[in-house]
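The following block was generated as part of the benchmark described in Methods. Ligand: magnesium ion.
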Amino acid sequence: MERTLVLIKPDGVRRNIIGEVISRIERKGLKLVAMELRTLDTDTAKTHYEEHASRPFFDSLVEFITGGPLVAMVVEGDRSIEAFRALAGATDPVTAAPGTIRGDFALEVQQNIVHGSDSTYSAEREIKLFFPDL
Ligand code: RTP
Ligand code: MG
């Protein structure tokens, strides 16, 4: 069974749509196997987004993702990485299809509600970072 790391980013928590996001994950048939509400420290945020370290938006992204509590969870299911990214929609919420989480709830590229691992390699790395005991 494949596992993926999902985050409900601080904007999603602030807007009180934790239940909405979890409900979509559950309705899809995916299973939650770990979940925690926490505020990331800067080092963890930088490690999580290390692939973007050289991008112009990196500092702002780290500030945003550490700016309030987020929900981290491990989601399991058949092809869960691809399945969750389909639920999330395109990175830019303006072009994300209506019916997706980003398409339905967001308008700005940074504050796009959720994160989902993008490969088996990153899922493994990210799950270890957030849930080392799992
Ligand atoms: P994520 O990693 O959060 O699941 O999102 P993603 O794969 O769809 O997008 P990615 O390219 O990995 O970008 C990571 C996050 O950085 C923010 N971002 N800001 N200002 C910008 O141009 C910009 N581009 C990306 C978003 O929060 C994006 O989800
Ligand atoms: Mg990404």
